[in-house]
Amino acid sequence: MSITVEIKLRRANKVYYEGETVSGVVQIVCGSETKHDGIALALEGSVNLQISNKNVGIFEALYNSVKPIALLNQHTDLAPSGKLPIGASEFPFEFPLICPKEPKTLYETYHGVFVNITYMLRCDIKRSFLAKSVQKTQQFIIQYRPMVEHPPKEVQFSISPDTLQKTAKERISIPRFLISGTLDSTDCCVTKPFTGSVTVHHTEVAIKSIEIQLVRVETCGCAEGYSRDATEIQNIQIADGNVCPKVAIPIYMTLPRLFTCPTLITKNFKVEFEVNLVIIFGDDYLVTENFQILLNRTA
């Protein structure tokens, strides 16, 4: 006896804004007439927070403070107890996308390491204890409405042994070099590329590689304490081998969907982003310059 369940949304791209209505049909295909104890559909949205392993000892008392934050929790009965006929049956549904309780806003969908913001529909076909109940889920995406674009915040930088956070003694062993560049803006739209350029003016030791690294910084916690972790999202090599001096090397990085979101700061958690410019010299000496970036969603 086979039962196939599919949750079909009316919107093909599955992207919704807060205040809209998510609607569609639950399609159930049965190979034979099937008895059931009711068909229910649930709309769920939550923020799942996790403390990293390195902080478990310190923050054991914090577990209750980082329990999942419910954003959406609605239920409806699609059909009472009865029988499903042979073939396909469809049950229409719709839910308003409104968060009635604190924080009274729907955060944008985001898949991180220690913070995950997800929205899903779950259909349950209840059956007697002799027959296995059937469950099907369907995720969809919440996005912020585009806001007015801010003027670009251009950042110019220069890297040399004198700008590194090293002691005078350590600087003696560092190869002499001068690298400068420009970031077109540290206030970035998540749907547009992160751009800029970097120029190597001179270096005593040949350069092996220049890379751009996108980092997520996730903070979970509350008044009792917090856990802050930085993890890599992606790493892009923009130069391989010893580059020509005084030639601008373009920086162009597309931000990955779902693994990034507009910068989010709440009382229980934060999701922030940084970019690292990494220069690896031929003797494997590594220099990193860090830039904090603010992500948003603009038209």
* Helix share, percent: under 10%
Question: Could you say what the CATH architecture of the largest domain is?
Answer: Sandwich
Please write the string of helix (H) and strand (E) elements: EEEEEEEEEEEEHEEEEEEEEE
Number of strands: 21
Task: Tell me the span between the first and last alpha carbons.
Answer: 50 Å
Tell me the β content. over 45%
Q: Over all CA atoms, what is the radius of gyration?
A: 26 Å
Main beta-sheet annotation: 6 strands, mixed
What coarse outline follows from CA principal-axis ratios? elongated
Can you tell me the residue ranges where pLDDT is under 50 for at least 5 consecutive residues?
A: none
**SS-based class:** mainly beta
What is the total domain count?
2
Oligomeric state: single chain
Top CATH class of the largest domain: Mainly Beta
The CATH topology of the largest domain is: Immunoglobulin-like
Query: Helix count, per DSSP?
Result: 1
Q: Please tell me the overall pLDDT.
A: 89
GO cellular component, one term: endosome
GO biological process, one term: intracellular protein transport
Pfam family, one: Vps26
Protein name: Vacuolar protein sorting-associated protein 26C
